């Protein structure tokens, strides 16, 4: 099971994915004003490639955006591709 934890401050934040207590991935973002944040980087540890870690972090970001009434700007190629492939996630994309 993939567990995703969010770290957030006034300017930056991240979503970290863990599998069995081991860090499996990291997705970072930067706030662009109060209403939007920019996903700028996603990385998955090599041992966890192909296990859905990246998508779980994107889904956590979408959940956060929906609950907080925020929008996402996807600059990271992985996040951008994930949004393009999943129409049901596009409501939070700028």
TrEMBL record:
Stretches assigned to the N-acetyltransferase domain: 1-94, 7-94
PROSITE patterns to which the protein is assigned, alphabetical: GNAT, GNAT_YJDJ
Matching InterPro entries: Acyl_CoA_acyltransferase, Gcn5-rel_NAT, GNAT_dom, GNAT_YJDJ
One Pfam family per UniProt: Acetyltransf_CG
Matching PANTHER family: BSR4717 PROTEIN, PROTEIN NATD1
UniProt-recorded name of the protein: N-acetyltransferase
């Amino acid at each position: 099971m993939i567990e995703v934890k969010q770290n957030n401050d006034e300017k930056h934040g991240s979503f970290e994915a863990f599998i069995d207590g081991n860090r499996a991935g990291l997705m970072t973002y930067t706030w662009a004003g109060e209403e939007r944040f920019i996903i700028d980087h996603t990385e998955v540890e090599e041992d966890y490639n192909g296990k859905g870690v990246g998508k779980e972090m994107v889904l956590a970001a979408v959940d956060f955006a929906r609950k907080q009434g925020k929008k996402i700007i996807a600059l990271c190629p992985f996040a951008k591709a994930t949004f393009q492939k999943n129409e049901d996630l596009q409501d939070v994309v700028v």
